[in-house]
Specification:
It is built from eight helices and 17 strands. The chain has 271 residues and is an alpha/beta fold. The protein is globular.
Length: 271
């Protein structure tokens, strides 16, 4: 029996980079659908502050050029690519922040609002044969699908507006030393950290002086490698990508990267 040709592609928790990728895949003749999980925060960002020994600001105008590096094009998970990548990572590092510092640019995009997305749980439970593309999911969903990656804990800060309002809307704050990212979403603060038991003082040493509620709201697992992991389950074809994003904050990768990744997902060929 001839296998059914899949012509629908679902993007889960779409970042600006995934939105650009979706447009290319749509031009290739696929129907594109957006879906989201509870840990999806569709903010618009127009700047980022890197807080270390000095404050570095990145804005939409900081379109510094950077030479292409083939490491980011290693979409196929092979022994050769893994050895090549791990040598690179050991020498230069490999994460969204590292790339931001090298390229000094990020991608502007209006987010896909939650009201315009389907629930990821509904996508999983329907009987349709579709391609599903994601870069992170809540930990329980990742374990259910059998994918691994970098673990992050997500925290929420609610309460005293005097503190909340200190954070500019549409700005991402990166505390490099403590590996923490912070942004304002609606009327509260979202914090992403590799620390599963983050102390408030790591965010701001005077945080306890405010009347705030600080609590963990979940964990996510994110792809920290350049290659695409994929598997077929229950008639669905899952593609676990690295989109070089922190939620709705995306690094602006080279134009042909999006084209080549779209071709790889749709044909499963590196070139």
């Amino acid at each position: 029996m001839k296998s059914e040709v899949i012509k629908e592609v679902v993007f889960v928790n779409p970042s600006p980079n995934m939105i650009k990728l979706s447009r290319i895949i749509k031009r290739m003749g696929y129907k594109v659908i957006f879906a989201s999980t509870d840990l999806y925060f569709p903010c618009f960002f127009d700047s980022a502050y890197l807080l270390n020994n000095k404050i570095t600001k990145f804005s939409l105008l900081s379109n510094g050029n950077s030479d292409k590096n083939e490491i980011y094009y290693l979409f196929k998970k092979s022994l050769y690519n893994r050895l090549k990548f791990f040598r690179f990572k050991k020498k230069f590092g490999f994460d969204t922040l590292t790339l931001l510092e090298k390229i000094k640019s990020f991608k502007e995009s209006q987010p896909v609002e939650k009201s315009k997305t389907q629930k990821f749980s509904d996508i999983l439970n329907n009987g349709k044969n579709i391609k599903v593309i994601f870069s992170y999911l809540p930990k329980q969903e990742m374990l259910r699908l059998g994918f691994n990656g970098n673990n992050y804990s997500i925290y929420k800060i609610e309460g005293e507006w005097e503190f909340i309002s200190n954070f500019q809307e549409s700005t991402l704050y990166i505390l490099k030393e403590n590996e923490i990212e912070i942004f304002r979403y609606e009327n509260y603060i979202i914090v992403r950290s590799k620390n599963a038991n983050l102390e408030q003082s790591k965010i701001y040493k005077y945080l306890d002086k405010y009347n705030l509620e600080f609590r963990k709201i979940g964990q996510i697992i994110e792809n920290g490698n350049p290659w695409v992991e994929n598997k077929k389950l229950d008639g669905k074809h899952f593609f676990y990508i690295n989109d070089y994003s922190i939620f709705n904050f995306s690094i602006n990768i080279w134009d042909d990267w999006y084209e080549k990744l779209a071709r790889f997902i749709c044909t499963e060929k590196q070139r």
